[in-house]
Design a protein that fits this description.
Strand content: over 45%
Shape: globular
Number of helices: 1
Distance between the termini: 45 Å
Length: 372
């Protein structure tokens, strides 16, 4: 099984692409350095950009709301801009066109591998809602008819990943390793979701969801043991992400908010018994993934839920100090992704438009270097 790379050469395709901006263009005409638009004019919303470990490619989703369809794209990356022609990622579908044909197909949840024979994995959903995981350079897919296989997270130090599967009931975590699938959790009453490795490759933070709410747990993948970290009864906590040194976990929770749809940003020690603290009062959930840790582990980048201010991107200090909202010059910001590039904190994210634009557009991709 191979990934079919479909290069975009036509202009004006319905529901497709009209133009790609291969060189960055300023989001504002003057002043200090603002965010730069790097990929433009999909006739849909660009979401969840993910830079490859070596920094040479970037993957992202394009969602077409009216068609209830999501595509996955990849393009070369150099410095602060894209390079080469974008390609659409579609699994080889010989003999399976009825499952993975056009229509409401959803290809999403891209996850880069860090080393080994496989470069990435992603999830593909068919019209019935079944979800399979495609793995680069592997002859099969992780597929259990009628159930969801999703949320792949790669071990930073090996060619294996943990994922969530509904094959055993509400959902458990499994490890994929060289084609073998090992069940890691066994909980008949709850579902396990949103796993995320720490940098050591020994622990996975995840969400256990049930009638009492959604809670944060940590799993030792070598000992097959999971311990609870955050249990806010009656509330939902979600999208855990380890700090760079593995000592803390950031997550979102609706605890104490007036609506179950309103989430705050929290931090907790990665060992049980520590002090859990709210560091951002109201923030926007990203379309996928979690908040972005700063490389020094002292803050998190998330979108402040403030429509009047354009939903700005802010750095929230983990000590609960005043957030530093970034002067990106863009509005309706989403999905921050942060990497160090040549000593620069480079932020890649999506936004609807630049301040001063007279008409709102689709969400596009932007890049911004955080001043330090």
């Amino acid at each position: 099984m191979k990934t079919t790379a479909i290069a975009t050469v036509a202009l004006g395709l319905a529901g497709g692409i009209t133009l790609f901006a291969m060189q960055p263009t300023p989001a504002t005409a003057q002043g200090t350095l603002k965010a730069m638009s790097v990929v433009a004019s999909h006739e849909g919303n660009v979401l969840y950009p993910q830079l490859s470990p070596d920094g040479t490619q970037i993957a992202y989703e394009v969602n077409y709301p009216a068609e209830k369809r999501t595509e996955l794209w990849m393009v070369g990356w150099s410095g602060r801009s894209t390079s080469g022609s974008p390609v659409q990622l579609v699994p080889e579908t010989v003999g399976k066109s009825s499952r993975y044909g056009a229509g409401k197909r959803i290809v999403h949840e891209f996850a880069w591998a860090h080393k080994g024979d496989h470069s990435y994995a992603y999830t593909i959903s068919d019209a019935s809602g079944s979800q399979d995981i495609y793995i680069d350079n592997w002859s099969q897919m992780i597929s259990t008819p009628g159930s969801a296989n999703k949320n792949a997270t790669w071990d930073p130090n090996g060619s294996r990943f943990v994922f969530s599967s509904g094959r055993s009931g509400n959902g458990d975590l499994y490890m994929w390793d060289a084609g073998q699938e090992l069940q890691l959790t066994f909980d008949e009453a709850n579902g396990e979701l949103y796993p995320r490795f720490d940098n050591s490759g020994n622990k996975v933070a995840f969400v256990r969801a049930g009638k009492s709410g959604s809670h944060i747990y940590v799993l030792d993948v070598n000992m097959f043991s999971a311990v609870p970290l955050v249990q806010f009864d009656g509330a939902d906590s979600t999208r855990p992400v380890f700090s760079p040194d593995g000592s803390k976990i950031a997550f979102f929770s609706n605890r104490g908010n007036s609506s179950v749809l309103d989430f705050s940003l929290w931090v907790t020690p990665s060992q049980p018994g520590g002090n859990t603290s709210k560091i951002g009062k109201l923030v926007k959930l990203p379309s996928k993934g979690g908040a972005a840790w700063t490389p020094d582990g002292k803050g998190l980048v998330a979108v402040k839920n403030d429509a009047d201010a354009g939903d700005p991107l802010c750095i929230f200090p983990i000590d609960g100090g005043t957030p530093n909202c970034l002067a990106t010059g863009t509005r309706n910001n989403r999905d921050p992704y942060l990497r160090v590039v040549d000593g620069t904190w480079r932020l890649i994210y999506t936004a609807q438009d630049a301040a001063g634009d007279s008409e709102k557009t689709w969400l596009k991709m932007y890049v911004y270097d955080i001043p330090r």
